[in-house]
Automatic annotation (TrEMBL):
Entries under InterPro entries matching the protein: IalB_sf, Invasion_prot_B
Pfam families: IalB
Signal peptide: 1-16
Name of the molecule in the record: Invasion protein IalB, involved in pathogenesis
Record keywords, A-Z: Signal
Length: 154
């Protein structure tokens, strides 16, 4: 778990050893041990005009299945789950699991049905409640390329 969190906090253009684009998603791979590579499918969302990171959405496979991880800047209300919905469908919760000085991570294991929903979707809307605001922060992520990216993770 610690290694996963460390990898997710480092994912980005400077940290990735190999990056393959799948439309709006990047397959980022890096060596984690001698002869062992770990890959994640990621999309980084930035604010228009100033390039400030709004969030990073990461999909990672392991022996237990596939997990969706949302990374956002610190300052979130950890007592309320983050959530996402695909194309206006039902909301799916993400549980806050860790924060460091810069980011907080929310995670949800994905069922086969949820993965199929992501593959068949166009847009996922994510949201979370900041500490210092009455309104939730909502943002959209494109799902274009997620099917090819997930296939490349296998």
């Amino acid at each position: 778990m610690i290694r996963l969190l460390a990898l997710l906090l480092l994912v980005g253009p400077a940290a990735a050893e190999e990056v393959a684009r799948h439309r709006d998603w990047s397959l980022d791979c890096r060596a984690v041990a001698q002869g062992e590579t770990s890959c994640v499918l990621a999309q980084r969302l930035v604010a228009p005009g100033d390039d400030a990171e709004i969030a990073q959405i990461v999909l990672r496979r392991n022996a237990g299945g596939t997990a969706l991880v949302l990374r956002v800047p610190t300052g979130v209300n950890l007592t309320q789950n983050a959530a996402y919905r695909v194309d206006g469908g039902a909301g799916m919760p993400l549980r806050w699991t860790a924060c460091d000085a810069q980011y907080c991570l929310a995670v949800a294991p994905l069922s086969d049905g949820q993965l199929d929903g992501l593959r068949g979707g166009i847009t996922a809307t994510f949201g979370y409640q900041p500490l210092a605001a009455d309104q939730a922060v909502l943002f959209d992520a494109s799902l274009l390329g997620i099917s090819a990216g997930l296939a490349a993770l296998d």
